[in-house]
Each structure stands twice: as structure tokens, then as C-alpha cells.
Design brief:
- With 197 residues, the chain is an alpha+beta fold.
- It folds into 2 domains: 1-100; 104-191, ATP synthase, E subunit, C-terminal (hypothetical protein PF0899 fold).
- 69% of the residues lie in helices and 10% in strands.
- The protein is built from 4 helices and 4 strands.
- It has helices at 3-100, 104-121, 138-141, 177-191, and strands at 127-130, 150-153, 161-166, 171-176.
- Strands 2-1-3-4 form a 4-stranded mixed sheet.
- A hairpin with a 4-residue loop joins β3 (161-166) and β4.
- α1 (3-100) packs antiparallel against α4.
- The chain is rod-shaped.
- The termini are far apart.
């Protein structure tokens, strides 16, 4: 074999080895690119899923806030409506009691309540309070009590009735229509099942 053949064979072997190395490098590069592409794809999927979840969480939070605001507004409106209804009911009751306080039946009831107070105070001196309009009944009310007792007008008694204070017995008794209406309103507020929950 000549030198030329040896050189050709040597060059062919180098070329063959270089081609094998090239194919191996291309294969490794393709494999690395494939792995990188797969990693990039997985990372993109994770980032997309995370972004979607964040947007969904944000949307849920926004919807929850909107719902909470609407619920709160609805409760406020319901509360105002119920408060208005309560006001109307008790304004009507107050008017009916004011109308009743102008009747003979009221005057009889006032005298009966006065007699009950006199019995409660057991003949001890006291101060009695009525609406200014009812001072005209003083000549019927005062004889039920001791001579030392007084009858006065009380501007806080707007509808009618009587209340009294007996110092010796440390008793305050309130038989006014005003306090009865207040007590009824308190009871109504607590028991009318108009709570806003």
C-alpha cells in the first residue's frame, strides 16, 4: 500500500470519526434542545396555570367583595325599611293613644290608675305628675291621696296618664301612656322578629 492509500484511508477514518462525532453532537444537541423545550413547556404550563389561578382568585375575591357589598346594602335597606315600618306603627299607636286621652274612658282610667297609686303609697305624702291637660282633674285625683300630696304638670308626659313619687316609701310609680308605649316599643323591637341577619 502506498502512502497515498494510507493517507486516504487515514483521512477516511478521520472523516468517518468526525461524522460519527458530528452525528453524536447533533443527537446530543437535539436531545438537549428537546429537554430544554420540554422544561420550557412545563415551566410555561406551570406559569400559565399559576397566572390563571391568580386571575381566578382575584376574580373570586372581587365577586365575593361585590356580593358582600350587595348583601350589606340589602341588609341596610331592609333595616331602614323595618325601622320606617316600626316608626309608622308607633306613630299610629301614639296618635290613637292621644285620641284616646281625649275621651271620657281615658278620664275614668286616669282616676282608676290614681286610686291604684294611692293604694300603693299607703297614705303617705307624694308628688304626682300628669299631662298639663289633666290638671283639670286635680279635684278628683288629689282627694285619693293625703293632704300633703301635690299634683304637678310634667312636660315629659305628652300623651297622658299619671306617675308619682313617694319619698317616705322610696317608690316611683309610672302609669303613663307614654311609658307604656315606650315599653311596648322595646318589646316589639326585641320580639317582632324583624332582626336583620
Amino acid at each position: 500500500m502506498g502512502n497515498s492509500a494510507k493517507t486516504d484511508n487515514f483521512l477516511k477514518a478521520i472523516k468517518k470519526y468526525a461524522n460519527a462525532q458530528k452525528r453524536q453532537m447533533i443527537s446530543e444537541v437535539e436531545q438537549l434542545e428537546s429537554q430544554k423545550t420540554e422544561l420550557t413547556k412545563k415551566q410555561a404550563e406551570q406559569d400559565s396555570a399559576k397566572l390563571i389561578e391568580q386571575r381566578l382568585d382575584k376574580k373570586r375575591a372581587e365577586q365575593t367583595r361585590i356580593l358582600a357589598n350587595r348583601t350589606r346594602e340589602g341588609q341596610r335597606e331592609l333595616f331602614l325599611e323595618r325601622a320606617e315600618m316600626t316608626e309608622k306603627i308607633f306613630a299610629l299607636a301614639r296618635q290613637k293613644l292621644s285620641d284616646y286621652a281625649k275621651t271620657p274612658e281615658y278620664r275614668e282610667k286616669l282616676l282608676k290608675s290614681s286610686a291604684e297609686l294611692a293604694e300603693l303609697f299607703e297614705g303617705k305624702p307624694c308628688v304626682l305628675y300628669v299631662n298639663e291637660r289633666d290638671l283639670s282633674l286635680g279635684d278628683k285625683i288629689l282627694p285619693l291621696f293625703t293632704e300633703e300630696s301635690e299634683l304637678k304638670a310634667d312636660p315629659q308626659i305628652e300623651i297622658g296618664g299619671i306617675k308619682g313619687y313617694c319619698r317616705e316609701k322610696s317608690i316611683v310609680a309610672d302609669e303613663t301612656l307614654d311609658s307604656s308605649l315606650r315599653e311596648q316599643r322595646e318589646w316589639f323591637t326585641q320580639n317582632a322578629e324583624l332582626s336583620v341577619l
